[in-house]
Amino acid sequence: MSRYTRRRLMLLVTAAGAGLAGCTSPAEPSADDADTTSVTSATTGETGTAADELDLREANVVAVAVEPAAGGHRFDVTLHHDDDGEEGYANWWQVETLDGERLGRRDLAHPHGTREFTRSATVSVPDGTTCVVVRGHDRTHGYGGRVILVNVATGATTAVRQGPEREPMDGRACQ
């Protein structure tokens, strides 16, 4: 009996949906694909929708999938940033503990345009750590935009708008 991982299942669903919709590439979002994920502001605690909160001048983390892998956990991180409008492209994303200790980083060597893009890396997460933060970064603005808290045990995510500066996530909890 074949075992389907969450990633494999998501790829199959995405490919099937793109085929039914007549899309040539599932990586190219349409205007109808508005992200309505609930987002909480780190500074005000206010909740809104992701579509209202994204500043594409900043490297926004818009999705994270995580699963156990040899040597740690594999993180598939999707960023959205306006890399066409300036030299300051999204140059990396990182996984860190809630108190800010960096666990791993995935460097990005070139611009990716204005569409969302996903890159993966395996990161060692210390035993007993259940909640991590995934942050994006760009060459011009540094930190900013949206981060995602990830429960590494369940894969549940919570989006948080951190604003233009790197906001601490101490005291936050994952779903």
Account of the 3D structure:
This protein is mainly beta. The chain has one domain: Immunoglobulin-like (Sandwich), CATH 2.60.40.730. Helices cover 11% and strands 38% of the residues. A seven-stranded mixed sheet has the order 2-1-10-9-8-5-6. The radius of gyration is 16 Å and the shape is globular. 26% of the residues are buried.
CATH-scheme architecture: Sandwich
CATH topology call = Immunoglobulin-like
Number of domains: 1
- Measured between the Cα atoms of the first and last residue, the distance is 31 Å
Topology:
Layout: H1 6-21, E1 38-41, E2 47-49, H2 50-53, E3 60-69, E4 72-80, E5 90-97, E6 102-107, E7 117-123, E8 131-138, E9 146-151, E10 157-161
Parallel strand pairs: 1-10
Antiparallel strand pairs: 1-2, 3-4, 4-7, 5-6, 5-8, 8-9, 9-10
Give a quick summary of the entry.
The protein is mainly β and 175 residues long. 11% of the residues lie in helices and 38% in strands. It has helices at residues 6-21, 50-53; strands at residues 38-41, 47-49, 60-69, 72-80, 90-97, 102-107, 117-123, 131-138, 146-151, 157-161.
Provide tags for this entry.
globular; 3-stranded antiparallel sheet; 10 strands; 175 residues
